[in-house]
Amino acid sequence: MENSPYKGQVCLDSTVLSTALVFLIIFVKKQITLDHSQLVAAFRENGILHLKEGNGKVITLMKPEQWKSDMGDDWTFLLFDLFQIRLICQQFSEVSLDIIEYANKPTVYHSPANSIVKNGPIIDGVLKFSLVMEPSWNKLLFQISQPVLVKIDTKETTTHQTPLLFPLLSPSAKEMYLGPDGDVKIIKG
Which residue ranges run through the membrane (predicted)? Predict the structure, then answer.
């Protein structure tokens, strides 16, 4: 074996291999999540939650039944599932549902309100809603288990905060009118 022509090469290869193993470092982006249990408990206790998100802006989540007209009309219904649209809006065509389901950016939709919606910011029969697809925010809404209203940048003081960015504050967020028959009008795109 000592006279093998591969002896030096094998040693070199094993040295290179062991050196490569020593310096192999894998960087994995740390997954940031919300502390759902604490936030859901605070929301259920008061029906309202002020939360400072990753941009430093305070968003207010509130049960729709607590909304009063003197609170203003700049509130948006947040949904965690496509089927919740039926609770707040008129019946949608498949085309309209597909537009919502396959949206690739956070979008606020303006749509005709369902006649059963009694509480909430409805202007001329139209309300605003967004289907939140970002996993952590979607999970929070799922655990709250009902449509909630959100007001962005409320300037409220709060002890609740997260490093996660709220999706509707993204520079790529869009806004559009979406009618039940598939009528589409881009408001902000």
Answer: 6-28
